[in-house]
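Late entry, written up from scratch paper. The run itself happened at the end of the previous shift, but nothing got recorded in the book at the time, so transcribing now.
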Amino acid sequence: MLKANVNGVQIAYERYGSGIPLVLVHGYPLDHTIWNPVIPLLESSFDLILPDLRGFGQSRLSPNSYLFIDVAADLVALMDSLMIKKASFAGHSMGGYISLAFARTYPERLLGLGLVASQALPDTPEKKIARYQEAEHILAHGVGDVAESMSTRLTADPVLQSMLKKLMRSQRPEALAGALRAMAERLDSNPLLPEFDFPVVLVHGLADQLIPVDRARAVQSLLKKGHLVEIEGVGHMPMMEAPQVTAEALKALL
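Output as recorded:
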């Protein structure tokens, strides 16, 4: 992988294709490889940048607690290092939260936004507490429990479940804990949505067990230029479960 030192953190990333820059932001507790199935479908249209977020995959751990605006700052610094003035972003689940934080802080750097199995709402107070408790559990006991419990909730496909379980087990406990705390502290992005003048593509599986499709429909209702693609029989991993449909949807960002 390529490496860039940004904001005191070494970020690893892959780059493929040519065209309009598109940053693909992975979800929790995964890494950039979840996007592999859509790379061959998008690389003729986009300059694809696939980072591993702080602490995940081959990126270095953040030494301190952080918020998603800090991760957005990592990504804008990565764009600067690659001399990219503007890009579209597509974020999966937590990656969608980070992409929305980027839109909040750097709207002038965005060409378009994709939210894949994501939402704009913040955590409820109860969910926030649960995130912090889960972070402590992971630091004490490792990532095994999360990998076991989440794999079946991400998708009903047993082959993908096995792949995702292995991927989750390869992540560092400290990375998961940091991301959980940042998710707990994320802001409500709904007030931003009516202000977006760029196109927004929403891709959501109708069988998503983690974020119901109603959340995507609510986001679309607040957008000027929102396009929602709902996929029958697909869970929380559209880019892996239905790569062709997901890629075609993201081409609306061209």
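The mean pLDDT is 97.
(Scratch paper discarded after transcription.)
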